[in-house]
């Protein structure tokens, strides 16, 4: 999925994205943004790993119940 299509899906246009980015820059400052993005990326990776583990457990449980 393209980056722009995500915002289009959410109903955000260019002006809204610009205002959100400006607010974040003013609120957190330029030095904190990379740290925030790094933390956000780590959180997303942890969420992906957790959902992957849950999916594998469900699939394994279904396979175990099918063999019984």
TrEMBL record:
The keyword Transcription regulation does not apply. GO terms for cellular component: TAT protein transport complex. One of its GO terms (biological process) is protein transport by the Tat complex. It is found in: Cell membrane. The chain crosses the membrane at residues 6-28. One of its GO terms (molecular function) is protein transmembrane transporter activity. Keywords: Cell membrane, Membrane, Protein transport, Translocation, Transmembrane, Transmembrane helix, Transport. It is a single-pass membrane protein. Forms a complex with TatC. Part of the twin-arginine translocation (Tat) system that transports large folded proteins containing a characteristic twin-arginine motif in their signal peptide across membranes. TatA could form the protein-conducting channel of the Tat system. PANTHER family: SEC-INDEPENDENT PROTEIN TRANSLOCASE PROTEIN TATA. Belongs to the TatA/E family. This is Sec-independent protein translocase protein TatA. It comes from Arundinibacter roseus. The lineage of its organism: Bacteria, Pseudomonadati, Bacteroidota, Cytophagia, Cytophagales. The gene is tatA.
């Amino acid at each position: 999925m393209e980056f722009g299509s995500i915002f289009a899906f959410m109903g955000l246009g260019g002006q809204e994205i610009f205002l959100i980015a400006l607010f974040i820059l003013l609120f957190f400052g330029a030095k904190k943004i990379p740290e925030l993005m790094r933390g956000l990326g780590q959180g997303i990776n942890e969420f992906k790993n957790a959902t992957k583990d849950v999916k594998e457990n469900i699939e394994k449980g279904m396979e175990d119940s099918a063999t019984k």
